[in-house]
Design a protein that fits this description.
CATH topology of the largest domain: Immunoglobulin-like
Order of helices and strands: HEEEEEEEEEEEEEEEEHEH
CATH superfamily of the largest domain: C2 domain
Family: Belongs to the synaptotagmin family.
Pfam family, one: C2
CATH class of the largest domain: Mainly Beta
Number of helices: 3
Number of strands: 17
Helix content: 10-25%
Strand content: 35-45%
Largest sheet: 5 strands, antiparallel
Membrane topology: Single-pass membrane protein
GO biological process, one term: synaptic vesicle endocytosis
Distance between the termini: 65 Å
Radius of gyration: 32 Å
Shape: elongated
CATH architecture of the largest domain: Sandwich
Number of domains: 2
Protein name: Synaptotagmin 8
Length: 375
């Protein structure tokens, strides 16, 4: 800061002023120009940053808990927010964001409260599966939250959905209790028909979890995986199955298991177990070893399918599942654990899925790169 002072009693005309050299004037002018340019740059940097427009942002805290329904414009956005419930009622699921554009549906799951304790210690390890009934092969999952009955998820997922399918589609959110060595237990679910949602208003609500709708049970299978990066050996041990679907007229099945390796979406190798007669709970304990080079492990899918053997007619598939970097949920976790624990066999139970659902998933999903362990 400069302070300039003037004395009014001094007569300027009486001063003997020495002329300023021309080079000094030029130097001062250049310095002033540089200073002005520097100040202009600072002003533009500080003031030129534009904040994103409100319509371009989706925030979990964009609407306060006391907000009532208000009109919004396309892209339609439904915010499901609520203050804490007044009663200590049953299970509650708190949803956050549902944004619908002409071909996109964004779903946000914020939190759950007062969940049922599923573990012996009086807690649960909850996570949420989200899908649309119009496209059941595309499912999203939240992270697993350990030892809590009041998890806070704050996760969002995006579905591509034709607008013509919106009136017939239902959003399903199922909350499960994660188990390492047994089947994951379902705690409850919320079903929200999209036709029942006003796409022009903000909605606030807690939703009670209800008992999950019973789907056709195809059975469960237990197997272990082991991979040794240095030798490139992938070991699959088929242990047992239980609660298999009845395929024969006398209420039993003759099950056997096929293990396929798929490389870059093409069938590569196959192994088959022996047939177990007249049982819905077969015990196999059969091991298969595949040669899978370390540089190919992320491009391989392991497809495990259970079949009913028939001497007269064609063998029928009971159910399937697949593991690999394109898998999701329990299957992806099992595969990831195998890669994270080289040389160690890891056994786990898995639920069988409809064969056509698995086949479609194998044809549509893209690979997810998982971190590989050191050789």
């Amino acid at each position: 800061m400069f302070l300039l002072g003037f004395n009014s009693s001094v007569c300027l005309c009486s001063l003997n002023v020495t002329p300023v050299p021309k080079w000094a004037l030029i130097t001062v002018a250049v310095a002033v120009a540089i200073l002005l340019l520097f100040l202009i740059c600072i002003i533009r940097c500080c003031c030129g940053k534009k904040k994103p427009k409100k319509k371009e942002r989706v925030s979990f805290h964009a609407v306060s808990s006391s907000t009532t329904a208000s009109l919004v414009h396309p892209p339609f956005c439904i915010l499901l927010l609520s203050p804490s419930p007044q009663s200590s009622g049953p299970i509650l699921l708190h949803l956050v964001t549902l944004c619908i554009t002409p071909l996109k549906l964004k779903v946000g799951v914020k939190q759950a409260a007062e969940l049922k304790a599923m573990d012996s210690g009086g807690t649960s390890d909850p996570y949420v599966i989200v899908y649309l009934t119009s496209d059941m092969k595309k499912r999203y999952e939240t992270k697993v939250y350990r030892k809590t009955l009041n998890p806070v998820f704050n996760e969002s997922f995006t579905f591509q959905v034709p607008q013509a399918e919106v009136p017939e589609s239902t959003l399903v959110m199922q909350i499960y209790d994660f188990n390492r060595f047994t089947k994951h237990d379902i705690i409850g679910e919320v079903r929200l028909p999209l036709a029942s949602v006003s796409l022009q208003h903000v909605i606030e609500q807690w939703s009670d979890l209800v008992a999950a709708s019973k789907e056709e049970q195809l059975g469960e299978i237990c197997f272990s995986l082991r991979y040794v990066p240095s030798t490139g050996k992938l070991t699959v041990l088929i242990l047992e199955a239980k609660k298999l679907k009845r395929m024969d007229s006398h209420g039993l099945s003759d099950p056997f298991v096929k293990v396929h390796l798929i490389l870059n979406r093409k069938k590569w190798k196959k192994k088959t177990t022996s047939v177990k007669k007249n049982t819905l709970s077969p015990y196999f304990n059969e091991v298969f070893v595949f040669e899978v080079p370390f540089n190919q492990i992320q491009n391989v899918d392991v497809v495990i399918s259970v079949w009913d053997h028939d001497k007269v007619t064609k063998n029928e598939p009971i159910g399937k599942l697949f593991l690999g970097c394109r898998a999701t949920g329990n299957q992806l976790r099992h595969w990831s654990d195998m890669l994270s624990n080289p040389r160690r066999p890891l056994a786990q139970w898995h639920s069988l899925q409809p064969p056509d659902v698995v086949d479609k998933a194998l044809g549509l999903k893209s690979h997810l790169k998982l971190p590989l362990p050191p050789r």
